[in-house]
C-alpha cells in the first residue's frame, strides 16, 4: 500500500502542496487529476525522492520510503527523461541495469516490453527519430522494464492516439491485476473515469475530493433524477421533495434525496416513461470540486 500523508511544500511565499493525503492500495488504479499547477507533479516528484517535502511523509508497506524502495518503483515523468541519440533497445536495457538488473536480464526484458508496446521493429532507431507518441511508449517501457512494485506516471497518455491509449491502458490494467499500485495524472477525465478504481482531485495544492467515482457522485448527498411523465398536467412537479434543476428533452431533472416520493407523484401525474438516476460525469464532479 502506498500512502501519501500530509505533504506540504512551499517555494517562498508560494504554497505548492498544503497537506496532500491519499492512499493507493495494492492492485488499485488511482487517477490524480487537477488543473495545471495544482500540485500533481510536485506530489509525484516528492514520492520519487526528486524533491524533498517541507512536511509530511510517503510510506510504502507501512514504512517511510527509502532509496531501496524507490529503486523498485517505475516512474514516468511528464518531461521525457530519455537520451535522444541513444538506440531505443539499448536505452530501455540501460535503465533496467540502473535498477539493478543483470545486462542479460535487462536486454531480455527490454525486448519483451518493446514487443508488447509495438516498438520491436524500432529497437535500433534513436529516440529523436520517433514520433512523440512512440517516445511516450518508450518512456513507459523504461518505467516497466525492471518489473516495478509501484508505478507512478505523470501524464502517461499525453500525445497518444486512441489505439496507443488502449494499448497503454491494457498494460496498466495487467500490472494492476498483478497487484501493482498505479498512480497516474491526466487531464483526460473521461479516460480516468473509465479505467480508474479511485480518483483524487487536487486544487491549489489541496486535496478537495478523494474516493471512487461512485463515492464522489454521492458525496454531496444530493442526486439527480431524470423523470419523464407522458400526458402530465403542467406543474405536476410542484411540491416535490427537492427542486427541478433542468430538463432533458421531455424529462425533468430533479435534485432530491427522496426518490420514492418523486416516483409516487410521477405515477399519480400520468404514465411514467422514464425514471432513473442521472449520474454526473467525472468532468462535472471535477468542476464542482474545484469551483
UniProtKB/TrEMBL annotation:
GO terms for molecular function: ATP binding; ATP hydrolysis activity. One of its GO terms (biological process) is response to antibiotic. Residues 2-229 form the ABC transporter domain. It is a peripheral membrane protein. It comes from the Bacteria. SUPFAM superfamilies: P-loop containing nucleoside triphosphate hydrolases. Keywords: Antibiotic resistance, ATP-binding, Nucleotide-binding, Transport. Its main location: membrane. InterPro entries: AAA+_ATPase, ABC_transporter-like_ATP-bd, ABC_transporter-like_CS, ABC_transporter_ATP-binding, DrrA1/2-like_C, P-loop_NTPase. It is found in: Cell membrane. GO terms for cellular component: plasma membrane. Belongs to the ABC transporter superfamily. This is ABC transporter ATP-binding protein. It comes from Actinorhabdospora filicis.
Amino acid at each position: 500500500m502506498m500512502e501519501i500523508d500530509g505533504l506540504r511544500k512551499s517555494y517562498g511565499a508560494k504554497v505548492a502542496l498544503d497537506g496532500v493525503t491519499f492512499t493507493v492500495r495494492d492492485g488499485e488504479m488511482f487517477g490524480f487529476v487537477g488543473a495545471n499547477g495544482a500540485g500533481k507533479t510536485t506530489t509525484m516528484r516528492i514520492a520519487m525522492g526528486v524533491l524533498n517535502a517541507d512536511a509530511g511523509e510517503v510510506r510504502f508497506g507501512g514504512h517511510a520510503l527509502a532509496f531501496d524502495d524507490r529503486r523498485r518503483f517505475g516512474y514516468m515523468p511528464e518531461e521525457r527523461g530519455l537520451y535522444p541519440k541513444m538506440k531505443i533497445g539499448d536505452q530501455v536495457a540501460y535503465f533496467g541495469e540502473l535498477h539493478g538488473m543483470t545486462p542479460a536480464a535487462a536486454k531480455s526484458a527490454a525486448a519483451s516490453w518493446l514487443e508488447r508496446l509495438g516498438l520491436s521493429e524500432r529497437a535500433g532507431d534513436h529516440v529523436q527519430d520517433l514520433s512523440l507518441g512512440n517516445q511516450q511508449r518508450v518512456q513507459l517501457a523504461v518505467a516497466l522494464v525492471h518489473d516495478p512494485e509501484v508505478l507512478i506516471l505523470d501524464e502517461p497518455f499525453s500525445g497518444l492516439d486512441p489505439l496507443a491509449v488502449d494499448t497503454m491502458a491494457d498494460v496498466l490494467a495487467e500490472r494492476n491485476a498483478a497487484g501493482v499500485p498505479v498512480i497516474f495524472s491526466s487531464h483526460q477525465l473521461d479516460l480516468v473515469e473509465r479505467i480508474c478504481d479511485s480518483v483524487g482531485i487536487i486544487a491549489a495544492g489541496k486535496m478537495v475530493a478523494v474516493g471512487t467515482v461512485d463515492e464522489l457522485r454521492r458525496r454531496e448527498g444530493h442526486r439527480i433524477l431524470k423523470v419523464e411523465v407522458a400526458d402530465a398536467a403542467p406543474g405536476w412537479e410542484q411540491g416535490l421533495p427537492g427542486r427541478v434543476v433542468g430538463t432533458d428533452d421531455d424529462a425533468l431533472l430533479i435534485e432530491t434525496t427522496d426518490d420514492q416520493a418523486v416516483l409516487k407523484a410521477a405515477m399519480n401525474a400520468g404514465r411514467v416513461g422514464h425514471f432513473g438516476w442521472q449520474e454526473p460525469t467525472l468532468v462535472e464532479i471535477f468542476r464542482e470540486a474545484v469551483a
